[in-house]
Amino acid sequence: MWTTARELRIPLDTRLEELYDIPHTISFVMRKKIQVDNLSSLPKDKRPPTKMMWEGTPEEIDTFLERVYGKNEDTTTDVLITDIEG
Amino acid sequence: MSVERNDVDISRLFMWGKEFEIEGNNEEKLTVFLRLIGDADLNKARVYALRSSSHLRNKLKEKDSDERLAYIPETGSVEREILVEAIAMLSIREYAQEAVKEVDIPYPVEPDSDAKLEKQEKYQAQVDAYPAKRDKKINEYIVKKTDERKKELNVMTDEQLFGLYEGAIISELCENEMLKKFKEFSTYSGIFNDSKYRDKTFSSLEEFQNLPFEIKEKFMVAYSELEIEQSTLKKSLQATL
Lengths: 86, 241
Known about the structure:
The structure holds two protein chains of two kinds.
Chain A: H1 2-8, H2 24-40, H3 50-55, H4 58-69
Chain B: E1 17-23, E2 29-35, H1 39-61, H2 66-71, H3 80-90, H4 92-102, H5 117-154, H6 158-189, E3 191-192, H7 205-209, H8 213-224, H9 230-238
Antiparallel strand pairs in B: 1-2, 2-3
């Protein structure tokens, strides 16, 4: 959370005392950032296209990674978030 | 004009709560505190909304239910032309979602950080023109798909048409129900008596739902002003990369 706040160069709200308190918008941004950072750290030839990283569903990204790595290799990306939002 | 990533105000992400004063029917004012809900409540809202839409779907499919009698016309009571137009119109949401995926217009390539001013100006102009260019392509896609759909519908039998119409009406009603219930639950979960957001104003969802319509609407509008669209959230992130 703090890493993201630092990245965004905005102090995190002091009213957020518990993880439970984090508004879903901030939570989404944090998870999406981790996801994009992880995918961006893959070698260029294994990296999903930019549009897929931002707009793709978790299933589309999974399928892409399975294709470029082969099904049995480790394609862990740590966080794959759903696109469902309020 | 939609917000592009160069215009995103990242600090808005942290404006997630506010004081809100509401006037009741007896001119008595009530001050509450609204905040965007967290993931746990968001998930509860989603589950509640899905159950509600599922309940409505079952009712709409049930022969002689009040909901079916109110919303689904009897077979043969609607003219072909109206059925075709209605099915095509009710498919627009689906085509719009498809279009967002299918229409691929590359985003302008950012010049190097030491690029000349004129190059940077040109890039900004391309960024500014991007939403209109994309919207135009999306509209063209929707019009094309709708026209194709109408051609397909025009050669169908009355029975086939009515079946599709019924399905489309049910989908639309359930979609609206899901959204309505999701907003109700989210708003109810985000209203508090205190600025620390600990003491909920309404003890149950039912209590909130039973408010007079105008008051409930005011709460829901005020809550929705705190929301940020997912596409804008993504742009706010892209702007920081």
